[in-house]
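Figure S7 source data.
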Amino acid sequence: MVNAPSIVRPILTEALRMPKITFITPNGERHDVEVENGYSVMEGAINNNIEGIVAECGGACACATCHSYIDEAWVSKLAEMDDMEDSMLDAAFERKDNSRLTCQIEVSDELDGLVVHVAENDY
Ligand code: FES
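Tokens for the predicted FE2/S2 (inorganic) cluster complex:
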């Protein structure tokens, strides 16, 4: 990017900007990572070796091992869950009102700053 003409540089910078997501693992460790738009929050966790996100089914909404608790400030900013996610969450350990399957949440600019508390998924 150093050699890009100054008129192109802002466009490239915007294209490369990635939303930041904070994962807080069950042991209390905080990880601030950047995840490319269009990926799922689960994929962002796996790509950054976030402990506790197992994702056994690879994102097919069939295992609940990507279960996390969405920080209360962000719950209303996410798209509503569909029936499949809702029923799969019934199989998750310690489901709460802010439970979501991270494989079903698509990263976008609107989720920049999202805070995700990873559930106990490796029981
Ligand atoms: S990765 Fe299996 S339900 Fe999300």
